[in-house]
Specification:
Blueprint lengths: L1 E10 L2 E11 L4 E5 L6 H8 L7 E6 L2 E2 L4 H5 L2 E4 L11 H11 L4 H14 L15 H13 L5 E5 L7 H17 L3 E6 L10 E6 L2 E6 L1 H8 L4 H9 L2 H6 L7
Parallel strand pairs: 3-8, 3-9, 6-7, 7-8
Antiparallel strand pairs: 1-2, 1-4, 4-5, 9-10
Family: Belongs to the ABC transporter superfamily.
GO molecular function: ATP binding
InterPro entries: AAA+_ATPase, ABC_transporter-like_ATP-bd, ABC_transporter-like_CS, ABC_transporter_ATP-binding, ABC_transprt_ATP-bd_su_PQQ, P-loop_NTPase
Length: 251
């Protein structure tokens, strides 16, 4: 569903991504793991069409983003690290606006919005303004929005930043439920080791390069340490961070 082939991106003399390649199949949950500055957000900006790579190709559901951006991006759902809801609109109005941008018929849009609000335990809050919601509930709204048009690929860009542990776990649970309903590909960017749990595929990114890609066991073997956490910290030169951060955040 998602194919990144030899993609590079530079900002002046800084090479943010250096010939990055990865593949995520339908029904796969792939965690993109890396510390701040690894290039995760740059990659997501390229995947979502906000910027154009200097080299390489990106395909969404087999459609080239560079040559057919409208078709490709219509198959994509995104929850960005920075929240992107209109705080002064209600939940329902935010969701209807997104449906309109995708050209969805109003009847279908309202049906899917209702289904999403029920699924995420927000059915009684559709008329509330977004600014009245907790951080965790705002993320739920963004996930409902990203799923309205039934994307083939879902991008989650550091979506748990600023959330407490129960909210992070709840968001992961919602993603798992969505994947059971539809065989989409999910690329979940994070710097939290704990969020690798249950991931079928892990891509380790550091300084714009892929250090390892595959199942958790394959990545552990590639990094040459007893655990993925130890392997990553050694490869990325973050042993001091590991020692001083028992929660497992790569920062």
């Amino acid at each position: 569903m998602l194919s990144v082939r030899e993609v590079s991106k530079s900002y002046g003399a800084v090479k943010a991504l250096d010939r990055v390649s990865l593949e995520v199949a339908a029904g796969s949950f792939c965690v993109l793991l890396g510390p701040n500055g690894a290039g995760k957000s740059t990659l997501f900006q390229l995947l979502s069409g906000l910027f154009v790579p200097d080299g390489g190709e990106i395909f969404i559901d087999g459609i080239p983003v560079r040559r057919q951006p409208a078709r490709a991006l219509a198959r994509l759902g995104v929850v960005f690290q920075q929240q992107a809801l209109d705080l002064d609109l209600s939940i329902a109005r935010n969701l209807l606006l997104h449906a309109d941008l995708h050209g969805m018929p109003r009847a279908l849009a309202r049906q899917r919005i209702e289904e999403g609000l029920v699924q995420f335990d927000l059915a009684a809050h559709g008329g509330r303004k977004v600014r009245e919601l907790s951080g965790g509930n705002r993320r739920r709204v963004e996930l409902i929005r990203a799923m309205l048009h039934r994307p083939a690929v879902l991008l989650m860009d550091e979506a748990t930043v600023g959330l407490d542990l129960p909210s992070r776990r709840a968001l992961r649970s919602h993603i798992s439920h969505c994947m059971q309903q539809r065989p989409m590909a999910v690329l979940w960017a994070t710097h939290w080791i704990e969020e690798i749990e249950d991931a079928g595929q892990v891509v380790v990114l550091h300084r714009g390069r892929v250090l390892a890609d595959g199942s958790q066991q394959a990545v552990i073997a590639a990094l040459g340490e007893p655990t993925l956490e130890q392997g990553f910290f050694k490869a990325a030169g973050l042993a001091a961070t590991h020692t001083n951060n028992p929660q497992g955040a790569l920062s």
